[in-house]
Write a structure and sequence with these properties.
alpha/beta, Rossmann fold, two-stranded parallel sheet, about 30% helix
Length: about 180
């Protein structure tokens, strides 16, 4: 979704920086591309790039946890092996001090209580808009599937988009972001 949004934003004439982990699709032409591999690298890149941005769109979630310790050698097979996890830093919470007059847009992927959980994230992460997306055995937002999403605003308004592709959703989202931008001015 992030790549589709970046592509549509570039076509609309916006200056775009795409920060992304490893994927099998090329970055859109005419955008600045910053490859990252870890949540810590993402946060570092975002702290630098947010200073120059008017809008932040966080379209993919970083895992809530990471491995406590990464080894530089092979782990031999044995019984009762366990992996210790620690929480990743909350990227949006750490970027809050950079927000000022910028727009912050987030995405929420939920397996239950879609609207309530997304509203909670919208408020707690001080977002201007959140794109709520469910993940069930009947609705998979990954790949090229048609999606049902809800755009939830700070004021409580909800715009539902049903059975549309990512390009359509990106177009609608960028239009809504443009309107929010001019309302803030």
């Amino acid at each position: 979704m992030g790549y589709t949004i970046a592509e549509k934003a570039v076509k609309a004439g916006h200056s775009v920086t795409l920060i992304s982990g490893l994927v099998k699709i090329p970055a859109p032409k005419s955008c600045k591309f910053i490859p990252i591999e870890t949540a810590d690298e993402l946060l570092t890149a975002l702290k630098e790039e947010i200073k120059k941005a008017d809008c932040l769109i966080m379209s993919a979630a970083v895992g809530d946890f990471k491995v406590r310790r990464i080894l530089d050698k092979k782990i031999k097979r044995k019984q009762n092996l366990s992996i210790n996890l620690i929480p990743n830093r909350d990227i949006l919470a750490e970027l809050a001090k950079y927000k000022k007059h910028k727009l912050f847009i987030g995405f929420s992927l939920e397996t239950e209580n879609l609207i309530n959980n997304s509203r909670f994230k919208l408020k707690n992460k001080n977002l201007d808009l959140i794109v709520a997306n469910s993940f069930t055995k009947y609705h998979n937002p990954f790949g090229n599937n048609k999606l049902d999403v809800s755009l939830i605003y700070k004021n409580g308004d909800i715009v539902k988009i049903k059975k549309k592709n990512k390009a359509f959703i990106a177009h609608v989202l960028l239009d809504k972001i443009g309107k929010l931008w001019y309302e803030k001015r």
